[in-house]
Each structure stands twice: as structure tokens, then as C-alpha cells.
């Protein structure tokens, strides 16, 4: 992550500083003007302006007898561009290939990035929709073949992803991704 982007975002993550940015978007202003317009003390305004200046979001220009501050719109646009680039990177990462080589749906890929580390499931999602994404992934990676699987084999395959293989096995059956009959499991038939 770009440290300058983080610095800018931290500087903007304050209601008073955002108010000052909004005021400076109209025109250059001195500390006293900003204090009067924002309802903050001059000392507080100076403190916030120093944070914004350190992040490259405002510039100061001496205008006797005051120092005027001006918003660096170019820097705000750069921050916006960096955020958009992060979104595009996130979307590109969302196209993780599934077992058939086709990209996974964006939501599934996002969930998998959050719940898989080094090929292992770090936890079983509590939310049904997220859990569904994980279960679909496990189905395609553990049970790609349309055949009968004995319960010990199901357990072994799921244990490779998470220690609570019994919960995963139950979820696969309860969500209808697998069927169970006489201790044997099978991929559910899709219509």
C-alpha cells in the first residue's frame, strides 16, 4: 500500500479536517478566516492544517499580514485516482480462476481472499452467503468428480482445508451441494 495514500487518507479521516478541506475548496483562506467559518479555534485550525499540509493536501502561501492556505486539488485527484486503481486491482484479483479455468464471480473471489490463507480456510464464515461461496469453492476443489465418496474420504478432503471437517460436511449437505445416503456422499445433481 502506498504510504502517501495512507497519509492522505488518515489526514482526511477527521470531520474537522474535512470541513476545512470543504472551505478551502471554495478559495484560499487564512487561518483566522477558517477559524471563523468553521467555529474552531485558530490553534486547532493550525493543527489540522499542518496535518493536511504534511499529507500534501494543502499548501501555504505567505500573504502579508497572513498566511493563506489553498487546497491542492491535483493531490485530491491523485488520491481519487489511487483509490480507483485499488478498486480496479481488487476487481482484477476478483477474477481468480475456478477449477475449470473460468474466473470466479467477483463476490466469491472477494470472500475467498478474506477466508483462505495459503490454501487453508482460516474460519468458516458465519454469514450464509459468504459460507455459500466457501462451500462452492470446496465442492469444486474437493469433489470435482461426479462419483460416490465414502465419509472417511469426504472427511480427509475437507480436513485438508479446515480442522472442523464435520461442520463443513454438514453444511455441504444442508445447503444441497451434496447428498448423503447410507454413509456415502455425492455431488448434488444440478438441473
Structure overview:
This protein has 191 residues and is of the alpha+beta class. It has 2 domains: 3-76, Arc Repressor Mutant, subunit A (Orthogonal Bundle), CATH 1.10.10.10; 96-187, no CATH class. It has 9 helices and 8 strands. It has helices spanning 3-12, 15-26, 31-38, 42-54, 73-93, 106-115, 128-142, 151-159, 165-174; strands at residues 29-30, 58-63, 66-71, 116-117, 120-121, 148-150, 178-181, 184-187. The strands form 3 sheets. The chain has a 3-stranded antiparallel beta sheet with strand order 1-3-2. A hairpin with a 2-residue loop joins strand 4 (116-117) and strand 5. Helix 6 crosses helix 7 (128-142). The protein starts with a helix and ends with a strand. Residues 89-95 have low confidence and may be disordered.
Q: Tell me about the biggest sheet?
A: 3 strands, antiparallel
Count of distinct structural domains: 2
Topology order in helix (H) and strand (E) letters: HHEHHEEHHEEHEHHEE
Strand content: 15-25%
Q: What is the overall shape?
A: rod-shaped
Radius of gyration: 27 Å
Please count the beta strands (DSSP E, at least 2 residues each). 8
Our measurement of the CA-to-CA distance between the termini, rounded to an integer number of angstroms, reads: 44 Å
| Strand adjacency order, main sheet | 1-3-2
The helix/strand class is: alpha+beta
How do the helices and strands line up, and which of them pair or pack?
Elements: H1 3-12, H2 15-26, E1 29-30, H3 31-38, H4 42-54, E2 58-63, E3 66-71, H5 73-93, H6 106-115, E4 116-117, E5 120-121, H7 128-142, E6 148-150, H8 151-159, H9 165-174, E7 178-181, E8 184-187
Antiparallel strand pairs: 1-3, 2-3, 4-5, 6-8, 7-8
Helix pairs in contact: 1-4, 3-4, 6-7, 8-9
Amino acid at each position: 500500500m502506498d504510504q502517501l495514500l495512507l497519509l492522505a487518507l488518515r489526514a482526511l479521516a477527521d470531520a474537522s479536517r474535512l470541513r476545512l478541506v470543504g472551505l478551502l475548496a471554495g478559495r484560499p483562506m487564512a487561518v483566522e478566516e477558517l477559524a471563523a467559518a468553521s467555529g474552531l479555534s485558530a490553534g486547532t485550525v493550525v493543527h489540522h492544517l499542518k496535518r493536511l499540509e504534511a499529507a500534501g493536501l494543502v499548501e501555504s502561501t505567505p500573504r502579508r499580514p497572513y498566511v493563506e492556505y489553498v487546497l491542492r486539488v491535483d493531490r485530491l485527484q491523485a488520491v481519487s485516482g489511487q483509490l480507483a486503481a485499488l478498486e480496479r486491482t481488487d476487481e482484477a484479483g476478483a477474477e481468480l480462476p475456478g477449477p475449470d479455468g473460468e474466473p470466479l464471480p467477483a463476490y466469491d473471489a472477494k470472500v475467498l481472499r478474506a477466508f483462505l490463507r495459503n490454501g487453508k480456510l482460516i474460519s468458516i464464515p458465519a454469514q450464509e452467503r459468504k459460507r455459500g461461496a466457501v462451500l462452492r469453492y470446496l465442492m469444486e476443489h474437493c469433489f470435482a468428480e461426479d462419483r460416490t465418496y465414502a465419509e472417511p474420504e469426504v472427511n480427509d478432503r475437507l480436513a485438508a482445508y479446515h480442522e472442523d471437517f464435520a461442520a463443513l460436511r454438514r453444511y455441504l449437505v444442508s445447503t444441497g451441494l451434496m447428498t448423503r445416503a447410507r454413509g456415502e456422499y455425492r455431488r448434488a445433481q444440478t438441473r
